[in-house]
Design brief:
This protein is mainly beta. It has two domains: 27 residues, no CATH class; 88 residues, Immunoglobulin-like, CATH 2.60.40.420. It is built from one helix and eleven strands. A five-stranded mixed beta sheet has the order 5-11-10-7-8, with no helix packed on it. It is elongated, with a radius of gyration of 19 Å.
Length: 121
């Protein structure tokens, strides 16, 4: 009897979208993860390098003296001058390692690249 009660409770919770019963992890229907990104010569500083699958909102600011941009998963900000800001919303549907980069010529070669890890922590 207890086994059936537990299965019924798990099915109810899954139906409500609170937990994915197959993985016992929160669903990706939660609020977006916010990551602050500081760009400078020649690098990035992220407030989080590991995030859960789902939507990530990148709040990007150019703290450098020259133009930079931020690109990840085929999406990116426009070129940002010193002090300029942009917001980028990207969906990460599955776990993995995702490369981000500044596309200004020579910046990636000078080290303006990095990796964001998407996994359940």
């Amino acid at each position: 009897m207890n086994r059936w009660l537990l299965l019924a409770a798990a099915a109810l919770i899954a139906a409500l979208g609170v937990v994915n019963v197959a993985t016992a992890r929160p669903t990706t229907a939660t609020a977006p993860t916010v990551v602050s990104v500081s760009m400078y010569e020649m690098g990035f500083k992220l407030s989080k390098r590991v995030v859960h699958p789902g939507v990530v909102v990148f709040r990007v600011v150019n703290d450098g003296a020259v133009e930079h941009d931020f690109r990840i998963r085929g999406q990116g900000t426009p070129m940002l001058g010193s002090g300029e800001r942009a917001t980028l919303r990207v969906r990460f549907p599955r776990r993995g390692t995702y490369r981000f980069v500044c596309t200004v010529e020579g910046h990636a070669a000078a080290g303006m690249v990095g990796k964001l890890i998407v996994r359940w922590t």
